[in-house]
Amino acid sequence: MANEQSTGDSLPTKVAAAKPDPAGALTTDVGNGGELHQRDSGTPLTTNQGVPVSDNQNSLRASTRGPTLLEDFILREKITHFDHERIPERIVHARGTGVHGVFELTESLAQYTTAKILTEVGEKTEVFARFSTVAGGAGSVDTPRDVRGFAVKMYTKEGNWDLVGNNIPVFFIQDAIKFPDLIHSVKMEPDRGFPQAASAHDTFWDFISLSPESLHMIMWAMSDRTLPRSLRMIEGFGIHSFRLLDAQGKSTFVKFHWRPRLGLQSTLWDEAVKIAGADPDFHRRDMFENVSAGNFPEWDLAVQLFTEEDAAKFPFDHLDSTKLIPEELIPLKVIGKMTLNRWPNNFFAETEQVAFCPSHVPPGLDFSNDPLLHGRLHSYLDTQLSRLGGPNFHQIPINAAKVPVSNNQRDGHMQMSQPVGRVAYEPNSLMKDGPRESTRGFRSFASAENGTHARIRSETFADHYSQARMFFNSQTAPEQTHMAAALVFELSKVEHPHIRETMVSHLRRVDETLAQRVATGLGMKKLPDPFPTDTPAEDMPPSPALQIIGKMKDTLQGRAVGVLVSDGSDSALVNAITAAITKAGADFKIIAPHIGEVELSDQSCLKVDGQLAGTPSVMFDAVAIILSDDAAAKLLKEAAAIDFVRDAFGHLKAIAVDAGAKALLDKAGVQADAGVVDAGNAAGFITAAKTRQWDREPKVRNLP
Ligand code: HDD
To answer: Whose CA is nearest to atom 34 of ligand 1?
Structure first.
């Protein structure tokens, strides 16, 4: 039952003087500042035992100024509950943002599986998605360089299906036994407790340099994929091969992909760093604001389907999670759409308590033999037991299946159900309508395994460099440059030269030009020898589907534009540009030197969304600056205004400017280019704003 508590909507009324009742009769409350708290005006405030509370401002005292009494069970209950408000945060993916939504199937996979969610076209299934960073704690910022978790719980008619993926289609390691070491290496170093939410430190790169299997994932981690512009604009991948099983038990392998309808988009590193300071909740706020405003983000669910025979022809092993199947080899088939359309009522109850387990699959799905997946099938259930306190976490509303759950499991911490009758076992003859096995129940693929029982890594897992090279070769020139810059940044934070050298020796196996660029960036006089390997990279055809820039959609939809104005700004220009932004499907925020309203040139008033110093240009995809001459002259002395312009330019954004704004650009040392558009040319500004000005990058930054 819901714990009914005051919503806080009825605020206390301030009165001039509230008098303490000397006899202690509860006719008047004395709170801090002499506030009189309205009694009997809303839902009664109660203890957790349902006892109404008459005074929530004062603890029970032996005398007016005297000691507080142990007898005060109301105080003790309230403080005790507060003391236990926190549960252990997730060891990884602690920082997350959850949203409710719906999945609708558009193409049936009935040929391959019996799973209803994948066969009943038009059926809508409720979902809860949680997006996360990996390394940082629950209170860390939203925009570090990090992989993003993409976990979706689908409340299907045949039980819950958790697709617990990331925004990158491969992983760091091939075997789950290495996972604790990987995570310990990236987390805060144990002796010093830092760095928080950062891979740029010795222990991470030490581990990576000694784990060649991670090189492909490192290429992704150093790409702009780990700097997403918005959680609404990331791809999601189930990563492992799963199985689809038909009614005869025939198996087809499947990989799952989520594709954002808004397209992929990333930030630049310098921008991400500045966003972290300007708004540590940047991604959570972006999701909250858009879902609340009805701009529901959507993803297509696509599958890659292949048989054992297809897999035998791949030049890699699909059971190895450090490998992907290029779309050019097995094309994606779109089968449905997920729409996220409802913000949770309560962050803790839903986003924090949601428990995902890759082992949660409905009948008609099954697992492949990926050794990383097999470790996960154990780990997630185990972690929920300590994080949520016991084996009944499935009864918490956010985790509960939307279909009846009936079995003979009993008791345990926080048991919420009250089973009736004397039978708690099966088979039995005493409870005729008790839970029984079902012919529609979950079945595992009947596989014939043979081979040596041993701690062994398959030969087919030995190639660590070919796909790393393919990924690098598939990128556009600016994306390759960003990867080199990211490696230089991260390895520059590494204190031990031998770790830097080992990393460059691996990079020589991936791509000589990349290795050279990074070595130069790290001030190395000569290249170290390539890392010894029996399995050097084979050249694979590039896969343009792995780019971000090349795949960017020609749209401003779902993006945000900052419009910097002042009192006296030209109203016609402001109105035309804001109308064009809205027409393009984007959002705009009015920024001004002061909060409240600005009065435009035609005396109309415009509500201000953000004060200049607290709303830097890093919060936006493009900016328009329309200022009166007076305001422009004043802002020439305002560092926040100069930074606004300089950062927008440095981050390769389109900038719309009027005459007043041009003075600001000059002061910021900005030399206008094609991305700096006259504010009178709203259409030209929208076109420029749909992309970054990549040509500008070499002019504003010395890149490796
Ligand atoms: Fe994991 C959480 C994704 C490998 C052990 N993982 C977690 C979450 C995501 C992933 C998205 C957060 C779920 C949420 O929002 O609550 N993990 C992955 C992916 C992996 C992967 C895509 C590789 C393909 N993970 C992995 C391995 C292990 C774990 C190999 C252990 C052997 N992961 C965990 C965990 C977590 C977790 C410790 C922490 C909190 C939780 O499970 O519920 O059990």
So the answer is: 380
What residue type is 127 in one-letter code? V
Q: What are the backbone angles phi and psi of residue 502, rounded to the nearest 5°? A: -60, -40
Instruction: Kindly state if the Cβ of 375 falls inside 6 Å of ligand 1.
Output: yes
- 610: which residues sit within 8 A by CB, 6+ positions away? 562, 589, 590, 591, 595, 619
Strands (E) located in 541-674:
560-564, 587-592, 597-599, 605-607, 610-611, 622-625, 655-657
Contact status, residue 143 vs residue 275, Cβ threshold 8 Å: yes
DSSP E strand stretches across 461-602:
560-564, 587-592, 597-599
Residue 555's SS3 state is coil
124-133 and 587-592 strand pairing: unpaired
The rounded Å distance from CA 109 to ligand 1 centre is: 27
Tell me the mean pLDDT in the region 290-301: 98
Using a 6 Å cutoff on CB, does residue 128 contact ligand 1?
A: no
Asked whether residue 15 carries a pLDDT value surpassing 70, the answer given is no
- Assess whether 399 carries a catalytic annotation: no
Tokens in use for 480? 């390759």
With beta carbons less than 8 A apart as the criterion, state whether 677 and 656 touch.
Answer: yes
Closest atom of ligand 1 to CA, residue 132 = 15
Is-catalytic flag, 160?
no
pLDDT at residue 41, as a whole number:
84
Ligand 1 centroid to 173 CA: how many Å? 13
- C-beta of residue 220 within 8 angstroms of C-beta of residue 170: yes
Q: How far apart are CA 354 and CA 339, in angstroms?
A: 19
Query: What pLDDT band is residue 35 in, cutting at 50, 70 and 90?
Result: low
241, 170 contact by CB (below 8 A): no
For each of the domains in the chain, give its residue range(s) and CATH number, in order of start: 96-172+212-218+225-395 (2.40.180.10), 466-549 (1.20.1370.20), 556-700 (3.40.50.880)
- Residue corresponding to tokens 């994932």: 217
Q: How far, in whole angstroms, is CA 159 from its chain's centroid?
A: 25
Structure tokens at 665: 């650009």
Q: Measured over all CA atoms, what is the biggest interatomic distance in the chain, rounded to whole angstroms?
A: 90
Q: Give the C-alpha distances (Å, rounded to integers) separating 545 from 298, 408, 474, 556, 573.
A: 19, 49, 8, 21, 39
Using the mean position of ligand 1's atoms as its centre, give its distance from the Cα of residue 407 in Å. Answer: 27
For 232-370, where are the alpha helices, taking DSSP H only? 269-278, 282-292, 308-313
Question: What are 51-78's pLDDT values in tens digits?
Answer: 999 999 999 999 999 899 999 999 999 9
